Amino acid sequence: MSTAACAIDFGTSNSSVALLGATAGGGAPPEGFRLVELEATHTAIPTAVFFSGEDGSRAFGRAAVQAHVEGHEGRLMRSIKSILGSDLIERSTEVGPGFMVKYLDVVVAFLRHLRQRATEAAGGPVERAVIGRPVFFVDDDRARDAQAERTLEAAARSAGFSEVAFQFEPIAAALDFERSVARETLVLVADIGGGTSDFSVVRVGPGQRGKVDRSADVLASHGVHVAGTDFDREVNLAAIMPMLGLGSEGRSESGASVHVPNAIYHALSTWHLINTVYLPNRLIELRQMASLYVDQNMHRRLMTVLEHRLGHSLAAMAEAAKIDVSMHGRAAIDLSMVEAGLAGDFDAVRQQAALAGSIERIVAAARLAIAQAGLSPANIDALYFTGGSTALAALSGAIAAVVPDAAQVDGDRFTSVASGLAVDAARRFGPG
Ligand SMILES: Nc1ncnc2c1ncn2[C@@H]1O[C@H](COP(=O)(O)OP(=O)(O)OP(=O)(O)O)[C@@H](O)[C@H]1O
Ligand SMILES: [Mg+2]
What we know:
This protein has helices at residues 61-69, 103-122, 142-158, 169-178, 228-240, 263-268, 280-287, 296-307, 311-328, 348-372, 393-400, 416-429, and strands spanning 4-10, 14-20, 33-35, 44-46, 48-52, 58-60, 74-78, 92-96, 99-102, 126-133, 163-168, 185-192, 197-204, 218-224, 249-251, 257-259, 330-334, 343-347, 382-386, 407-410. It has 432 residues and is α+β, with helices and mostly antiparallel strands. The protein folds into 2 domains: 4-181 and 413-429, ATPase, nucleotide binding domain (Nucleotidyltransferase, domain 5, 2-Layer Sandwich), CATH 3.30.420; 229-352, no CATH class. Strands 1, 2, 3, 4, 10 and 11 form a 6-stranded mixed beta sheet that branches. The protein has a 5-stranded mixed beta sheet with strand order 14-13-12-19-20, with helices on both faces. Bound molecules: adenosine-5'-triphosphate and magnesium ion (MG). Residues 11-14, 47, 81, 169, 193-196, 227-229, 319, 322-323, 326-327, 387-389, 391-392, 414 line the site of adenosine-5'-triphosphate (ATP).
């Protein structure tokens, strides 16, 4: 007997699951799949795990973020997808006094949680999955990229899936778009999420929908490891870290004027590296750096952040500032959790400057995808946007300018990839 199948968009920031075929209550949904409500009625949840240091329990999604915000003893893990292609994946992190967890096991725990939700929704075990993957987990290193996919497959098997297949996330988005197109269309898909910006050039159309092998319709795929979490880091480095000493005046042992070391600020601003700054040895080393700071206030603030483990809260503040600026043109930054009365602000001009280099790299990747398809921008009929970061007008505008004649279509930012993966899963596994 074949078991139920699902599709998983395992995102850097958010994840979704679509379930194929019959539901727990019987009867198949008209589209052949449905998005699973993963947390209350939410079909997309933060890719986040909280390990309690108090009792070893785990929380996922919004509940994980909430447990951390409420100040429970334990560790919040975010951006775990970014670790797949790095050496960190085999290492462990301390989640409570003397309680270590391997980063890989964090990925397994999260996937097991998604599988459990899918199993509840299906009313029986879900053992087959199509999982989305970025065009490149790791830029410019094929061996490590392949290793990252193998790691994710092994994690999915440990989480209880016996059959696992992968599909590029932007191709999945194209399959979602194809459900609504009335005529043959050459589409450039732009999927700009938390970790990667991915582009595919795909021929879609009513006549193509039923075909199992779509390789001839996928003209090119290209991506870069630059997206929303990088924007958060850039906003953090521009708007928050200077208030903790980044770029401030330092004094070397010989008395020469230097900048204070910046590696700590970089790690503290990078979602998947935040937990590495709290290692006991690192804290001792940083405490001893006090003499390097001309302004002792700056060092004191930095140590407050490290000793109270405020890194994730600051990163969340940087992300909120980015979104506020993207929607309203400005943001207020309240750092009273670091020091009474400490505050700053951020605006569109500074955001534009902070993100300019990243936006340029993303736009270059879009151009390259079109060139790799052997096409010119004028050949593209439609530009399909998905992924949370496409809400940034400066970014989506810059991509749209690459294909000025294409019709712009906005997909569902957070669930388009999961829906398209479900279309792909139905073709591979049958309707369920
Ligand atoms: N209104 C907004 N303006 C700017 N950025 C936004 C907005 N809303 C969400 N984002 C950003 O979108 C990103 C998350 O998007 P999404 O959920 O598509 O990513 P993901 O699928 O988890 O990541 P990936 O596909 O790269 O692995 C986050 O960086 C978030 O800050
Ligand atoms: Mg995504």
